[in-house]
Amino acid sequence: MFPFVGRGSCCSSAPSSSSPRRSCSSRGNRRTWRSKPTRCPCGSSPLHFSFTFVFPLQRFLQCPLKNSVIAYVSAAALVVHALVTWVCVSKLQFGLIGTMLTLDFLWWVSVLGLFGYVTCGGCPDTWKGFSMEAFTGL
């Protein structure tokens, strides 16, 4: 149920966050400040969609008390994020777009790390693999 709720809320909030230019102009902001915020909501869409995967994975790992795995994956993602942010923002001069892309990248690194742990043998007692039984009774 949780992935569907996340996807629904992400899709419902996308139209309202895709046009901040209109809301900035109605408040009387200068034109130079209005042009930059319009790029951010489009860059944060992958971030919002990653929440629909990372939250159920974290809940799944918290049930058998695998909280240390979440901490290790988060620490590794933080190191990767610091390195990628430094490269994209400082060296390649991507600026705000580079910051948004690295933030998206960080969350997907976390998703892939947690998913890899769950599916590659980290949870042998609780994860039995993908099957059609998951769709029975829907």
TrEMBL record:
Keywords: Membrane, Transmembrane, Transmembrane helix
Membrane-spanning intervals of the chain: 69-89, 96-118
Disordered: annotated span: 1-34
Compositionally biased intervals (Low complexity): 1-27
Protein name: Uncharacterized protein
Source organism (scientific name): Canna indica
